[in-house]
Amino acid sequence: MKILNVLLPLLLFGMLITLGYYGYQASQTPLTESLATDDTLPTSFRSAIINADEEDKPVILIFSADRCGACRVLESKTLKSSKVRSMRDQLIWLKVDVDQSKNYDLARRYGVKGIPRTVLLKSNGREVGSLVGFTGPDDFARFLQKAL
Question: Beta partners for 129?
């Protein structure tokens, strides 16, 4: 019984390390042409990836839902602020409704657990960062600067 008490935690720890490593590797995979042609992803996402590559612009994914109060405030206050609007042409913007079944895989790919969730990608597809929840205009603009 003592051996089981020692080995079981070690085995579980090893499994967590292995899963964490592979999860990290998956999250670091660049968005390549394969994502732009992946039929399981929404057409709008594939178009955004193609445009980002062609125009050499970062992509901003905003995961939200109509039922989400914080999402509506983010859209009405932050995204319409002059600071954020002044950066609008420097990025490829994509709003992703997590309540639409066609977006489930994309939300899962970016680990959406709460909304609004904003994911910032370089034009090469590397994730620069993400935010969860409402963010004010000043902080949101600083966040966008990471990719520019």
Answer: 120
Distance of alpha carbon 37 from alpha carbon 20, whole angstroms: 27
For 146, the token pair is 């990471």
**H or E element: which one contains 35?**
helix 33-36
SS in 3 state form for the chain? CHHHHHHHHHHHHHHHHHHHHHHHHHHCCCCCHHHHCCCCCCHHHHHHHHHHHHHCCCEEEEEECCCCHHHHHHHHHHCCCHHHHCCHHHCEEEEEECCCHHHHHHHHHCCCCCCCEEEEECCCCCEEEEEECCCCHHHHHHHHHCCC
- Asked which of 8-12, 21-25, 67-71 is least confident by mean pLDDT, the reply is 21-25
- Measured distance CA(90)–CA(87) in Å, rounded: 5
The mean pLDDT of the chain is 79
| pLDDT, average across residues 56-83 | 93
Between CA 41 and CA 24 the distance in angstroms is 21
pLDDT one-digit tens code per residue, 88-126: 889 999 999 999 999 999 999 999 999 999 999 988 778
Q: What's at 89, amino acid-wise?
A: D
